[in-house]
Amino acid sequence: MLRELKKQQTRQAISDVATRLFIEHGFENVTIAQVAAAAEVAKMTVTNYFPRKEDLVFDVHEEFVESLATTVGEPVLDTTRQAYFDALDRRDALLGFSGREFAKLIVSSPVLLARLRELHEERESRLAAALAERMEPGTARAVAAQLATAHRLLFDEVLRRTANGEKAVAARVRKTAERVFDLLASGIAEL
After folding, report:
1. Which residues contact 110 (CB under 8 A, 6 or more apart)?
2. pLDDT at 123
3. 34 by DSSP, 3-state: which?
């Protein structure tokens, strides 16, 4: 247990150092070797914890990918909607909430935006797999696509508003989210 705690602390320390460097210098301008030096670990240690440079920024990517699949229940739309608004009230990072500098880092990097799109696609696939356990696979994919797209759009809005330095982001996104989930209700409410 102590060994696992040490690993988690090392991983978090590397991620924190990398984030600071990326914010200060830009994602594309910082190398893995520079992150390793600043974190006082070997380059291989960084790559063991983070196989891709982008994963230093999206260090919660596994939680992100699993997030929709683990919150969806029955009825699908109602439980997903409730989970979203609960997370919105917490200003959950998995919805895109972060500090302004971090949000600006992401929106200013084509590489990070591409990785974020990949993560959204992985999350949709994971949700479809979870839904396929209780409904026909084609229906599961269609429902997952709609829910994942709604979450992606709302994530993007949180990220953009945060990067722009807007105030009361959660309140503004809440109005949009209510409209988005109401639109979904006309198509998948009974599943």
Report:
1. none
2. 98
3. helix
